[in-house]
Amino acid sequence: MTAVAPAAFQQSNVDYVAILPMLIVASAALVGVLVEAFAPRRRRHVIQVSLAVVGLLAAFAAVVWVAVDPNKVGHKGLTMGFTDGTTNHSVFALAIDGPALFMQGSIVLMGVLGILTMAERFGGVGPDAFTPSGASTPGSASESAAARAGALTSEVFPLTMFAIFGMMIFPTTNDLIGMFVALEVLSLPLYILSGLARRRRLLSQEASLKYFLLGAFSSAFFLFGTALLYGYAGSVYFGDLSKAVATGPLAMNGLLLPGAFLVFVGLLFKVGAVPFHAWTPDVYQGAPTPVTGFMAACTKAAAFGAILRLAYVGLDTARWEWTNAVVIVAILTMVVGSVLSVTQTDMKRLLAYSSIAHAGFILVGVLAFDRKGVGAVLFYLVAYGFSTIAAFGIVSLVRQNGGEATHLSQWAGLGKRYPLTAGAFAFLMLAFAGIPLTSGFVSKFGVFSAAIGTGGATGTTLAVIGVVCSAITVFVYARVIVLMFFSDAPDDAVEVVTPSMATTFSIAIGTLITLALGVLPSSLLDLADRASQFVR
Amino acid sequence: MSPMHYVYLAVILFSIGAATVLVRRNAIIVFMGVELMLNATNLALVTFSRMHGALDGQVMALFVMVVAAAEVVVGLAIIMAIFRARRSASVDDANLLKL
Amino acid sequence: MHTGMGSLAHTVGTYAAGLAAHEGEAHAATGFTAYAWLLVALPLAGATMLLLGGRRTDKFGPVVATALSWAAFVVGAIIFVEMLGRGADSRAQNVTLYEWVTAGTFKLSAGMLVDQLSMVFVLLVTFVGSLIHVYSLGYMEHDPDKRRFFAYLNLFVGAMLLLVLANSYLLLYVGWEGVGLASYLLIGFWNWNPAYATAANKAFVVNRVGDFGLTVALMLMFFHFGAVDFQTVLGKSAALTGANQGFMTAMGLMLLLGACGKSAQFPLQSWLGDAMAGPTPVSALIHAATMVTAGVYLIVRSAPIFEAAPTAQLVVVIVGAITLLFGAIVGCAKDDIKKALAASTMSQIGYMMLAAGLGPVGYAFAIFHLLTHGFFKAGMFLGAGSVMHGMNDKVDMRRFGGLSGAMKITWATFGLGWLAILGVPPFSGYWSKDKIIEAAFIGEGWRPWVFGGAALIGAGITAFYMSRLFFMTFHGKKRWDADDHPHESPRIMTVPMIVLAVGSAFLGLILSWNDMFVSWLEPVTGAEPEGAHPVVPVPLLLTLTLLLVAGGVFLAWMRYWRDDVPVTAPAGSLVTQAARKDLYQDQVNEALLMRPGIHLTRSLVFADSKGVDGAVGGLAALVGGTSSRLRKLQNGFARSYALTMLAGVVAILGALWVIS
């Protein structure tokens, strides 16, 4: 490989319209920081929430604008970089294409629902799920002083916006180092958010520490893989990587396999794939419930967007090197996720293992290596994301003595006393189980049929294992439903608190979308199918 | 001296870093292990940059340093909070979430 | 999906040319048939209303549910009359409800196939179902939860109709799961009794094994044909010639596995006996007349697949033959009146399976027997319910005896059912079961002798155990407890029994007139091949059958009417003991599946102590055991998580290096 540095300074070529959605979210986050500094305390909550929601909706409008491209200027394609005039070699950092825009749009919309559940106050001054003073020691005088003074943690909103910003870049970025930066931009705010729970703060801080240490550990792997691939190909741009593999064996051929796999490790960690899943249940349980819901939906979507791009654009030509590794991971993920969910006793941990199992099912779609597979994965991410936000939203409403009641035994008989809430939750459980007429069925059907259709013998094997694992998880979800509707409530029964309009809205929307995507999935399937072509 | 030696050194440093994460209890030291892994990567990046005769590897190393700095800020804050709450920085003491 | 049904069902008339002769051409629906969705919508609306309406609907709910069930019957009858008015070739109609999934080239429209076969089921399910609704008004009168009961019954009727009316395997699967859910809910209806809840769970687990087969079959279809609707799948299967045998066999066997789970066929039969824990009307409707026959429907509907896979077809016959003998033997030893009837159901469905596996010579008779069996078995179950009603909910036949005097109507209606199942001419069973025995004797080589022989011997044993049941209950000495005052049931219960008894008596005769039923089904099941004759002359076969039946009845008469029946069961021979224990089916299950995981099951931490999670069966225990072991890996130490990650990286990379 010869030098790729340009002979003379060359201005990079940025299509600002194409990156407008990300710019909007980033600026909303930055303005949020200023609001935190200057707005009076009692108005801060309202300002922050409206700022975040308006910013996200504007970003969504921008995504739609870029995607439908009214003036046919063509904002789609590679941007932020330049083409070397002499070698015609191009280095562009961002790829604005179907999958990227689809992922950005869905992350932003799921972000709105996430923000709305985080904003729940239950009549207090600040968001109810978050401690008024994250820096103070749990149970200390300074904590109670902060609570008395009416302190509130409205900085969670800018933090969430930064995380969303990172999530939007993650599936869009066209090179490994950009992917690393995006990974960190989305992770760092999440590490902090996980540690800010109002109740059970020790658990929350522990979740934060574990998430942080293991996350940093995994991003070191990602980075080392990047370095190895750079050593192999002399570039970290996906186009160059793909070409380098295609042109044949190089001197440093031995770096390709470890490099590719280590990069995948960093991404598979984020989706909670086995054996990189150990953080998931602990963090899901310890983090404030609205944050868990947001993480489960949006992080998973962003990370799978990145996995898709890496698998289909960057390392597509090196497929025979790493496919087997990811197949092993997919099988482990499905089996361990579904089997372990059987013995869970905590609702949030149960949902965490369910999310691990779902990551395995989605990986099956990734391994289809076909446009159909991409479309199916995109659909799955949206369907699962909305269901999971609603599910965690409901979990945050079931309470005992003010705190969340997450032990399964506390949910016994809930259906008799709160039929509507329990009914919605049961419906979401059915969606997770993949029962027909819910979005879960269509998504599972999509990924499995894509795997069988184009994945060959491996795909068929994966799909069969997937069906068996789904059957196991059906049992788990059915048990939750049975528990809610056919068991008697314990004496110290839990209550379902009445949430504000915002939370009600986000739970209702999540549930309705789960239903709508099950009954009339065609339009979104079409959209995902049309959005399934990557640019190079 | 062949530049490959630097790559080997980087691999060794990376392994030492990973081993540190696994064997040390103090959260600060564990975190230093992670930092060592990142810096081993930097060494590898710079070496490959030299081998390919291109600058981008070095630029990437700069990126990594900035990101690592941001990570330090967040990491130390979290470890501090834990330390103040528990009077211990041992990662093994944070063991409430399990099974 | 009923939100989408509001829009009038529109019709789509474009179908691939060159359809299989088998399936006939389904025309786009015209006339009242376009309203076939009402069949499913009416009962489901009832179920929704009763479940959501809460206590407000306690008073009028059951009556409304019954009315809606009858309304579905009326809709079915109108469609049936309309169908009669058309020529035989244009009777099959396709009602497209809406485009469910359209992604790329894959299109799936939810629709209904209203043809001769599904019409038989519609009429059976709505008619018998409605009668049982009526009966339940009396039977469940004093149950505090009868609103829920009727909601589930309505749910069942809706789901069952969806199952038989679906025009694709996917929609069939929806109905399939729906009836499974209703069955689960109704078996465990009295779930304050832990044994009943366990029975429900057992049924659930066994059915999941079957459903797994159906799911895999669905996926194989999709893989192979790129579609899951009957039109494409069956059309393409019929057009296959020799190629892809292995594939078709796999598909057939998976469908059979699904059928075995739902229809309680060997080796998945163990749940049916326990399912008798549900209220008796449920046993009559779901676990005798309709749901358990869904497996037979699946096989007959999938006929072209089995035609293309002779091995799978042979397995169907073998499964049928084994089950019919198995059920009959078990039936001889059961003292619980409902469990004896359940064993008999199993055995009779074995006959249907056997017929369904014989190919075109058997399809029509499988369905015919299904229809007559639906009447006489439902009638007998209702009779058993009536006996229990009069005998303080006792089920032990050794405590009955001589009830014919106290319960005249029950005795008479039960007697007609008894004559029908025995196959005594001219009652219904004679026209359907004897035809199956005849069909089993058609063929070459060893098959007719083995299968025909099994069917023939089965008939003899059937005669013995059904007579045993009948005599022990209604004749011989009175063996009642002191506080038993048997009395006839109220009219609301006896009228449905009478109606079903009339059906048991005459339905076979009427429908056999001029081969009416067989020629009605011919466009769906294909014509009976010309010149196929049993290896034994028909008159001889007939005589043999009747002799065996007479022998069975005589033996039962000697032992259970003439002689005194001991109140406590004697130890009995080894065979009797084995049969009492369902031929050790549960023990085999336990040794193979349950014991390895049983001590781990106990360690399953779960709040519900009422048996939701207690003994959930072998596979579940295995999963649970693995789960609680794996769970220990999640030990809470961040460093060990990091080790898991690193070990994973090293192990997988190492494995890849070794491979390459």
UniProtKB/TrEMBL annotation, chain A:
One GO molecular-function entry: NADH dehydrogenase (ubiquinone) activity
Entry-linked InterPro entries: NADH-Q_OxRdtase_suN/2, ND/Mrp_TM
Residues in NADH:quinone oxidoreductase/Mrp antiporter transmembrane domain copies: 174-468
The EC number(s) this enzyme carries: 7.1.1.-
Entry keywords, A to Z: Cell membrane, Membrane, NAD, Quinone, Translocase, Transmembrane, Transmembrane helix, Transport, Ubiquinone
One Pfam family of this chain: Proton_antipo_M
Class of enzymatic activity (EC top level): translocase
GO biological process: ATP synthesis coupled electron transport
Superkingdom: Bacteria
Cellular component terms per the entry's GO annotation: endomembrane system; plasma membrane
Cellular localisation: Cell membrane; Endomembrane system; Membrane
Topology class, membrane: Multi-pass membrane protein
Coiled coil: none
Family note: Belongs to the complex I subunit 2 family.
SUBUNIT field: NDH-1 is composed of 14 different subunits. Subunits NuoA, H, J, K, L, M, N constitute the membrane sector of the complex.
HAMAP family: NDH1_NuoN_1
Role according to the record: NDH-1 shuttles electrons from NADH, via FMN and iron-sulfur (Fe-S) centers, to quinones in the respiratory chain. The immediate electron acceptor for the enzyme in this species is believed to be a menaquinone. Couples the redox reaction to proton translocation (for every two electrons transferred, four hydrogen ions are translocated across the cytoplasmic membrane), and thus conserves the redox energy in a proton gradient.
PANTHER family: NADH DEHYDROGENASE
Protein name per Swiss-Prot or TrEMBL: NADH-quinone oxidoreductase subunit N
Organism: Intrasporangium oryzae NRRL B-24470
Automatic annotation (TrEMBL), chain B:
Reaction(s) the record says it catalyses: a quinone + NADH + 5 H(+)(in) = a quinol + NAD(+) + 4 H(+)(out)
Pfam families reported in the protein's UniProt record: Oxidored_q2 (PF00420)
Gene Ontology cellular-component annotations: NADH dehydrogenase complex; plasma membrane
One of the GO BP terms on file: ATP synthesis coupled electron transport
Enzyme class: translocase
Protein localization: Cell membrane; Membrane
Topological relation to the membrane, as annotated: Multi-pass membrane protein
Entry's EC annotation: 7.1.1.-
UniProt GO molecular function: NADH dehydrogenase (quinone) (non-electrogenic) activity; quinone binding
UniProt keyword annotation of Amino-acid biosynthesis present: no
InterPro entries for the chain: NADH_UbQ_OxRdtase_chain4L/K, NUOK/Mnh_C1-like
Transmembrane segments: 6-23, 28-48, 60-83
Swiss-Prot/TrEMBL keywords: Cell membrane, Membrane, NAD, Oxidoreductase, Quinone, Translocase, Transmembrane, Transmembrane helix, Transport, Ubiquinone
Subunit and interaction comment: NDH-1 is composed of 14 different subunits. Subunits NuoA, H, J, K, L, M, N constitute the membrane sector of the complex.
Function: NDH-1 shuttles electrons from NADH, via FMN and iron-sulfur (Fe-S) centers, to quinones in the respiratory chain. The immediate electron acceptor for the enzyme in this species is believed to be a menaquinone. Couples the redox reaction to proton translocation (for every two electrons transferred, four hydrogen ions are translocated across the cytoplasmic membrane), and thus conserves the redox energy in a proton gradient.
Family: Belongs to the complex I subunit 4L family.
UniProt-recorded name of the protein: NADH-quinone oxidoreductase subunit K
Organism: Intrasporangium oryzae NRRL B-24470
Gene: nuoK
